[in-house]
Design goal:
Elements lengths: L3 E4 L5 H12 L12 H8 L11 E5 L2 E14 L5 E12 L8 H15 L4 E5 L11 E2 L5 E2 L9 E5 L10 E4 L9 H7 L15 H4 L4 H8 L14 H5 L6 H13 L10
Parallel strand pairs: 7-9
Antiparallel strand pairs: 1-2, 2-3, 3-4, 3-9, 5-8, 6-8
Helix pairs in contact: 1-2
């Protein structure tokens, strides 16, 4: 399969939003009615932090099958100094083309552009067992936290050159558009596209039924409602819980795999 990558143009907007909708249709928690990543893509293009030079589409046989969009972000250190960074997302790939190198190709292509433009690093919230395979490292290694001072494995950094984050640490902020989404807005925006059957998340109870009471109690500390949200925690984070042993980890991997989800270092 040959993957061609080029900068997105206005003529691509609808097709890109449609493929983003398909990619994320089943990526949300039970208290939401619909995904909002296609709306986010639309809003990011209008943001002051949007970076059109890093806004790229992946094509196979001239068909858009993937998309990556970037915006400026920042780290604020304890002295109040701001250090400009990058973030991307949504990174969308049509379901039929997932696990075929499209997402990785989009990342590596845009990383090269970002290096030439002089940016330091790309920092994301993403699948904690997948992105390290592309070169991302835990943000905690660099003393980077959420705005609330929290650290978890899904917050990761990719250095665009050696020593890019030397002497830089602090709280990480992304642009406002990520936080200004609403379910009402997503439902209204979704009317642009053909009707689609509502996605019903797979309840995490199907995993709990296969675990010992001790392991079940340990996982319940996360407060997850659907199986999909397990992908926000790395295998390291789960294995560190009291009550999680090798048998429990094996069961989690099996249940996730049976339901089409990548989870754990050996599953990505």
């Amino acid at each position: 399969m040959t993957i061609d990558i080029r900068q997105e143009t206005p003529a691509d907007y609808y097709a890109v939003e449609a493929l983003t909708r398909e990619a994320f249709w089943s990526f949300w928690e039970n208290d939401r009615q619909i995904c909002d990543e296609h709306l986010l893509t639309n809003k990011l293009r209008q943001s002051k932090d949007f970076l059109p030079e890093l806004d790229c589409v992946a094509l196979v046989d001239d068909k858009p099958v993937g998309h990556i969009i970037y915006s400026k972000s920042r780290i604020e250190d304890d002295a109040g100094k701001s250090h400009e960074m990058l973030t991307f997302g949504p990174l969308a790939v049509l379901p039929d083309y997932q696990n075929r190198g499209v997402g990785k190709a989009l990342m590596l292509h845009t990383f090269d552009i970002a290096k030439r433009l002089g940016y330091r690093a790309v920092i994301i919230f993403g699948h904690p067992d997948y992105y390290p395979r592309v070169g991302f490292r835990r943000a905690r290694e660099f003393g980077i936290t959420t705005p609330n001072g929290e650290v978890f494995d899904a917050l990761m950094a990719y250095l665009l050159h050696d020593g890019a984050l030397d002497g830089i640490s602090g709280r990480y902020y992304i642009c406002d558009e990520y936080w200004e989404l609403s379910q009402e807005g997503a439902l209204e925006f979704d009317k642009k596209f053909p009707p689609k059957e509502k996605y019903v998340p797979i309840p995490i109870s199907i995993l709990y039924e296969r675990l010992t009471p001790t392991a079940k109690a340990a996982l319940q500390s996360f407060g997850f409602m659907s199986l999909k949200t397990m992908t926000s925690k790395s295998e390291d984070e789960v294995s560190a819980l009291d009550g999680i042993d090798k048998e429990a980890l094996s069961t989690i991997r099996t249940v996730m795999r049976e339901n089409g989800y990548r989870w754990g270092g050996t599953q990505c």
